[in-house]
Specification:
228 residues
């Protein structure tokens, strides 16, 4: 009998109210809008490096923030999935109707994707991996991505080797000294460690793009599937 998908505590928070707040936050204020535009810029570069894939799975799609970008290619088929039914409903209600008409949505876990082997050209996974603090959880997800893609994976996460990661470590150490270690759901992953995990899951790295080199933690990787 197959094991149920891994469930992590942070995934339970995406109720309808939280899903709407998630959609709104990327439109709230100049700094958020500028950050969103930089995210789009990096995503376009990543899609070009991946060869402008025709059949893309956006997972997790959240509130559909990247759907208009993915739809810029008129011949692209877009699948969009999320673990949260409320996120999917918010995405369908919030994005332009002509964009929504281009997207097939379904509910699924990134740890057990409800698609056959090698069924998409690329998996587009933005702003999920930094929530996965343990290699024991990241590896099953990466192996599932390897199973479902037939070519590439585009994913973002927080990496070390920059000012923000250094500052975050100092702030976390100070907080732990005074308050003790509480529930953490965002993690900086050493670049050498995640790159080793990519290789262990059967991927090679085509390239990566940093949000702000040497300053910000966000990095977007483009991976190519190999045969393990």
């Amino acid at each position: 009998m197959s094991q149920p998908p891994i469930q992590l505590p942070f995934s339970d928070k995406y109720t309808q109210t939280h899903a709407q707040a998630y959609f709104d936050k990327h439109r709230d204020g100049l700094a958020r809008r500028m950050s969103h535009q930089r995210d789009l810029q990096l995503a376009r570069k990543a899609l070009r490096l991946a060869g402008e894939p025709t059949l893309v799975l956006d997972l997790p799609c959240g509130a559909g923030r990247f759907w208009p970008l993915l739809a810029e290619q008129p011949n692209r088929v877009i699948l969009a999935a999320d673990n949260s039914a409320d996120m999917l409903a918010t995405a369908r209600a919030s994005q332009p109707s002509d964009i929504v008409a281009r997207v097939r949505t379904f509910q699924t876990s990134a740890f057990a994707i409800d698609l056959p082997d090698r069924s998409v050209d690329s998996i587009f996974c933005m702003r999920l991996m930094h929530h996965i603090g343990e290699s024991a959880h990241r590896m099953p997800m990466l192996r599932e991505f390897h199973r479902v893609t037939r070519d590439t994976v585009i994913l973002s996460l927080w990496v070390d080797g920059n000012y923000k990661a250094w500052k975050r470590r100092r702030l976390e150490a100070e907080r732990d000294r005074h308050l003790g270690r509480g529930l953490q759901n965002r993690f900086v992953i050493p670049a050498h460690q995640i790159e080793s995990e990519f290789a262990g899951a059967g991927f090679t790295i085509l390239g990566h793009f940093d949000f702000l080199p040497l300053y910000a933690m966000w990095r977007v990787y483009v991976l190519r599937r190999g045969d393990r």
